Amino acid sequence: MNFTRWSARLPGTQRRAAARTDRGSVPAARGEYGPGPDTWPDGDGTEGPGAPALEELSVRRLLGELPALVALVYGPEHRVAYVNDAYATVFGPRTAGAPAAKALPELEELGLLPLMDQVLRSGKPRTVKSRKAQSGGSYTVTCTPVDIPARGEGGGGVLVHAADVTDHAEAAERLRASERRHRETAVTLQRSLLPQELEQPDDLRVAATYQPGGTDAAVGGDWYDVITLGAGRTALVIGDVMGRGVRAAAVMGQLRTAVRAYARLDLPPHEVLQLLDGLAAEIDASQIATCVYAVHDPNEGRLVYASAGHLPVLVRHEDGSVHRAEDPNGPPLGTGGWLHTSGTIALPPGATAVLYTDGLVERRGEDIDEGVAALERALSGAVGTPQVVCDRLIRSLGVTAEHDDDVAVLVLQHPARTGPNAELFHNAALDLLGGVEAAPRARAFASGVLASWRFPVELRDLGVLAASELVANSLQHGTPPMRLRLRRTDRRLIIEVTDGDDHLPRRRRADPGDESGRGISIVATIASSWGSRRTPGGGKAVWCEFALPT
């Protein structure tokens, strides 16, 4: 922008306006147009009869009538040359010739003085958006270099043009506040649907971490859960609803509730996923979900799991080696038409297993297998409690508060117990061979084992009675092979009888004249809890538990 011809209109200059052109006279000081609109420039950009030349328009009047705030400064100190009426109305009049650092403190408030230095040096315009002044107004400011040859300090100046965008800034802030409230609502809903406190099984140590995506990411549908099944067995589940916002969180809550209900049936993992698959399609066919459901049995030292489109379970052994659970892996929940199957992965004492959602390992522009490999490397060196392992994996994978996706991590450890701690955990088993003579052998075995474990007499008698009733029920209604297993932990006594028949017993009310039907009722009355399940190889297991005195 060249102010050579316009400098006569600026304060303190002595230059006069050029002579009138042969098309007519236009008062230079007032910048008035010609007689009327019919003499203004034509719509095609050519000047009509008597149209004013651009040189004849008054800069003072043009800038003075702008609703935007305009200031003209010159020289390296940005001395004030001119401010228009709008500027003076907002910030007050300014003394010409004073440096901007003193005369225009509002420019320093807006952080414009360094920007004006850049414009003066580079000769290129710069714009900053929605800067807020202490007066409360917000402005979008453009600093444009101008030439002022009449000035003796290099002839360079800066035209500052500030548009008041206070209404737009306030509207944007209200929108951001509304978005924050909606996101906080979704996060609160999500967290309320997750377990507030994880169940801690006798034979496992468990910890979990959930981190919602950054402020620019809508909350997702990640979830996890730990469910004690009885007889020392534990179900572990992690999943991810493929969606965003409150709807995804609501679907997640329904699936998590359904998982807990199906887990109480003590079904194999693939049957649980089969039920979830149908339910997910009924809840919302447009939102599918991935899920891993695993069951840990301390007597077997392994995880039995089934996966519906989810990432593989990772297991770290004591020597630092990491193993990945590969197959089977079916399609996500809600797709239908697929028969899920169960697989197994070893979880010996001293091992650590990790279940996680894709937010932990998925990155833009990278193959997800690279993220899983990075997680394996991080897990191989991760030692400590499950919570320490969770935190270390989150840090190692670069997950921060601004991460663009939700992250859920579930870590479980099968501790290797030694010394006095190991004395609190015992197992004893007896194969029930023969016919009815197996019953007295089972009672004698149970009495001797419980006595050796130094249980109180009352608890020992109750345990022998429960073992006797479960064995009698199996001898009467089951088929070989039959086995009695006793297990104690630091918190409970578990009695379990297995046989080859897959018909599950049920508790019923026996009439006074009935000679049978009371065994399960007796067990349910004296024990803390009881249950039954079908075993993978065919047959069933019936168990009961007694809480140990603290």
Rough outline: elongated
With strands numbered from the N-terminus, the spatial order across the biggest sheet is 2-1-5-4-3
Number of helices: 13
List unreliable stretches of 5+ residues: 1-43
Computed CA radius of gyration, to the nearest angstrom: 40 Å
- Please give the number of β-strands: 20
Q: β content, as a range?
A: 15-25%
Helix content estimate: 25-40%
What's the story with the biggest beta sheet? 5 strands, antiparallel
What structural category characterises the helix and strand content?
Answer: alpha+beta
What separation lies between the terminal Cα atoms? 88 Å
User: On the 0-100 scale, what is the average pLDDT?
Assistant: 84
Written account of the structure:
By secondary structure, the protein is of the alpha+beta class. It is 29% helix and 25% strand. It is built from 13 helices and 20 strands. A hairpin with a 3-residue loop joins strand 17 (483-488) and strand 18 (492-499). The longest helix is centred in the N-terminal third of the chain and has 28 residues, at 166-193. The termini are far apart.
Give descriptors for this structure.
550 residues, alpha+beta, five-stranded antiparallel beta sheet, 13 helices
Write the SSE topology.
Blueprint: H1 59-64, E1 69-74, E2 79-83, H2 85-91, H3 100-103, H4 105-109, H5 113-122, E3 126-132, E4 138-147, E5 156-164, H6 166-193, E6 205-211, E7 221-230, E8 233-241, H7 245-263, H8 269-283, E9 289-297, E10 302-308, E11 314-316, E12 322-324, E13 343-346, E14 351-356, H9 368-380, H10 386-396, E15 407-414, E16 426-431, H11 438-452, H12 457-477, E17 483-488, E18 492-499, H13 519-526, E19 529-534, E20 540-547
Antiparallel strand pairs: 1-2, 1-5, 3-4, 4-5, 6-15, 7-8, 8-9, 9-10, 10-13, 11-12, 11-14, 14-15, 16-17, 17-18, 18-20, 19-20
